[in-house]
């Protein structure tokens, strides 16, 4: 059975990123996948200290918070979906903190410590220009490779000037469900 860990970085748990993520998960569930969904704005994840103790401790972080559960589930996942709004040309603070805390997935040689898993980056933003942040999103995905998080798909939804853009776009919902079915 395909296991998905879904990360919602947006504080808008009923917003565009959340609804888009739910559409993907709906499609995946229809094909028999199981998933765990984490809403970062609702849980306690401390900022990475940059102490590198995780490198020395076999991937165990010195910080004790809600990230420990997420981390353990990522290690056994087939796919990780990271949904984040783009704020000021990059993922928002919740998502950045999450990404920083994924560092224990790499070893001292910057190789994946726990194997590889597929990553889908799902990003929403308000600018009406398609693909304006695609280079940034692509580079963010590439930076995860050393951790074994292989970015194999980016989903970019632009023009999210209202919180219900995705809810009102049936064609987009259908596309997202189809993506979920093909994970």
From TrEMBL:
Any one GO molecular-function label of the UniProt entry: oxidoreductase activity
Protein name per its UniProtKB record: NADPH-dependent FMN reductase
Residue ranges constituting the NADPH-dependent FMN reductase-like domain according to the UniProt record: 3-123
PANTHER family reported for this sequence: IRON-SULFUR FLAVOPROTEIN, NAD(P)H-DEPENDENT FMN-CONTAINING OXIDOREDUCTASE YWQN-RELATED
Superkingdom: Bacteria
Organism: Clostridium sartagoforme AAU1
Cross-referenced Gene3D superfamilies: 3.40.50.360
Keywords: Flavoprotein, FMN
């Amino acid at each position: 059975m395909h296991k998905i860990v879904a990360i919602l970085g947006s504080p808008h748990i009923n917003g565009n990123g959340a609804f888009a993520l739910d559409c993907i998960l709906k499609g995946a569930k229809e094909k028999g996948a199981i998933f765990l969904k984490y809403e970062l704005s609702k849980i306690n994840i401390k900022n990475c200290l940059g102490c590198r103790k995780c490198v020395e401790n076999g991937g165990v972080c010195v910080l004790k918070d809600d990230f420990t559960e997420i981390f353990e589930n990522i290690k056994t996942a087939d796919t990780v979906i990271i949904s984040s709004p783009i704020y000021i040309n990059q993922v928002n603070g919740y998502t950045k903190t999450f990404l920083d805390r994924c560092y224990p997935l790499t070893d001292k040689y910057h190789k994946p410590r726990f194997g590889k898993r597929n990553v889908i980056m799902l990003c929403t933003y308000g600018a009406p220009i398609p693909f304006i942040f695609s280079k940034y999103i692509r580079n963010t995905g590439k930076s995860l490779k050393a951790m074994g998080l292989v970015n194999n798909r980016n989903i970019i939804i632009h023009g999210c000037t209202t919180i219900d853009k995705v809810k009102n776009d049936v064609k987009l919902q259908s596309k997202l469900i189809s993506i979920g079915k093909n994970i």
